[in-house]
Amino acid sequence: MPRRPLRPPAALLLCAGALGGTASAAPLSPAPPRPLRILLTDDDGYDAPGIRMLSDRLTAAGHDVTLVAPLTDQSGAGTRIWDAPTIGVRHPRPKVWAVAGSPSDAVDFGLSAVFGDHAPDLVVSGTNFGPDLAAMATHSGTVGAAVTAVEHGVPAIAVSTGGLEPPVCDRILNAMRPTDDFVVELLDRLRDGARGGRLLPGLNVDHPVLGADGSGTARGADLTTQDPRPALTSAYADAGDGTWRVTVGIADRPARPGSDVAAVRAGRVSVSPITPGWNPAAGDRARAAALLAGLRP
């Protein structure tokens, strides 16, 4: 890579001694890191504890946070989008917007109507109450919001707290604090690595719940893949009145090595890259091509 020429001020400082002066120039202090402009959303609702806690933490870290999230709980909404000519929006306080739609609707509204031509540096979706692991991530509104942002060309991070065990409310709420601390450190690293350029396109972050009260620190962080198998099981019983009772349980399966489930079960943070498309792996594409060979309508 060719070396870039020194800018005039830097060149003058380096040459100060040769210019005849006897006083030494004071060293330049590094410029403070630039705050990130963040659109913060989630699928639990604009006033849920997880998004409020992360908003406070990101703001305390010096970032410029604008909250644009669903008006009500939209858990499990995936990437569902609004299909009506109007949508309800509330603006209860400065830098907070509540959209009567899905998390994807909130991101779309935020990018189009709130940020407009000045896109944020990053969309952060969370902190979600409970896990978004394995196939749950596919149906998650938290992850769906991040996917929608990446579709619009804006880097995004989905953040969740919890593992595949029956949730205990207080433990998960306590675990959101170390989750948020990890997110701030992750953003610092992304910003430093980008060096003023574009951040990494998309990540799904899942933080475990550790310790008796949930406030324990994770044992590390792993780059993972999404375990493709369902994490939950459903059983249906006919109630006899045109409705069916639904019982949901946790699928008792071994975690796939290197997967998000394996990391969280080991007490580690799972960080999985996410993309907005459904493009298959090379092997699957080749098999599909073989299937179509010679086939005519």
Outline:
This protein is an alpha/beta fold. It has helices spanning 8-14, 49-60, 103-115, 136-139, 141-151, 169-194, 260-265, 282-292, and strands at residues 37-41, 64-70, 89-93, 96-99, 122-129, 156-161, 202-207, 221-223, 232-238, 244-250, 269-273.
Write the layout of secondary structure elements.
Layout: H1 8-14, E1 37-41, H2 49-60, E2 64-70, E3 89-93, E4 96-99, H3 103-115, E5 122-129, H4 136-139, H5 141-151, E6 156-161, H6 169-194, E7 202-207, E8 221-223, E9 232-238, E10 244-250, H7 260-265, E11 269-273, H8 282-292
Helix pairs in contact: 2-6, 3-5
**Low-confidence parts, pLDDT < 50 over ≥5 residues?**
1-24
The CATH class: Alpha Beta
How many DSSP helices?
Answer: 8
Shape: globular
Distance between the termini: 53 Å
> Major sheet: order of its strands?
3-4-2-1-5-6-7-11-8
Spell the H/E element sequence: HEHEEEHEHHEHEEEEHEH
The mean pLDDT is: 87
Helicity, in percent? 25-40%
Largest sheet: 9 strands, mixed
Instruction: Give the count of structural domains.
Output: 1
* Estimated radius of gyration: 23 Å
How many DSSP-defined strands?
11
